[in-house]
Amino acid sequence: MATKYQEIAAAIRKQIEDGSYQTGDLLPDQSTLAAQFAVNRLTVKKALDGLAKEGLIYKQSGLGTYVRGKIPFVNQETDIAVDDVRGGYEEYGEHITSKVISLDVLLPDEFMQQTLNLKRIDPVYEVKRIRYIDGEPVFFEHTYLPVKLVPELSEEICEKSLYEYMRKQKGIKLGNAFRKFSALAASTEDAEFLAVKKGTPILEIEQVIWMTNGRAAEYSINHVAGDKRSYTVMNVTNLGHN
Q: Which positions fall inside the HTH gntR-type domain (predicted)?
């Protein structure tokens, strides 16, 4: 189910795509949009921030928010901003399903201790999942979580949404993420779980996610078949020097 800010973003996106808002048009200010959608300005700001990351709109300090229009090579269905920390269920809704390959508890090695800021005696979960979009395998996820963060983690929880469970059931507030992208050739394991040939190009996303209090919440390595997913970044700073 879409959140309110996603509904607002979708409504404005549709108005841009159907020509109700033309390239160069000035959007109504946040107060006007908040009244129009019966929400607060923070919700409107979150919606506009998302559209700005897609490149559909841009902001000029002191002047307002303008329509840029759709970037032809951006695919809304398969592309995601590199700094998006939504969970799969929030992004795909009922289209995503998960299959747990394994759920184990182990003691962290030196790398995991440093990455998740743990002691050697602090156990971590190791979760391997395949994520399907409309029944098609898209993500092979290899995730590590501190046991003390979610002590009752189960396969049933992992088959749904880890992030949603952490947010709604545990009150964990996820904040920042650092992601590293690499191009690799599919391993035997990738070929099996992603239904591709061994050696097929895949995208590896290595990431750490922190909570808003600065504590590490997750370390993961995700593999995606090369033709199933793209990541985008919108530079919103001034590139030129006047």
A: 2-70
